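Annex B. Sample input.
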Amino acid sequence: NTIEVATGGVLAFTDDIVCKYDVINAGTIQGGTFTGTVTNHGTINGGIFENTLPESNVINGGTFNGGITVSATINGGTFKGDLRNYRAINGGTFHGVVNNYGTIYDGTFFGIVNNERIISDGYFRSLVNNYSTIRNGNFVNTVANEQLIENGTFGFAVFNNAIIKNGKFTM
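Annex B, continued. Sample output.
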């Protein structure tokens, strides 16, 4: 069974209400606990999501326990599974592996980050593999640089195979 939320529609539950159905969202999800697959073409403002989101548009908040692929924007939320980002991360807390093909503007990252595009800022507590550009950020664990570091604060080892233009190294 599938619930479809139309453009302009709202699906709103309290987090203690469990939705076991798959959801295709073109509107807004504002709460609830979802155990089925949620495909988000609209906006998620909150809720608890137990399974993988195969694709997602705008996320403003919520707790995501499975993996997720984002082709739009993350403005906040707690992400416990692995994440593929193809657009923008503006904030949130991330515990799984993040494969970044877009831009990270902010957030707190506890898992490994594989950066294929741009890190503009954020707080990184685990290994960062940089294959493109780091513009700024606070890095308290190892950074493996294969391309370009323009700036940032680095509190642990930086393994550099390319260019470092600037930065603060506090090891």
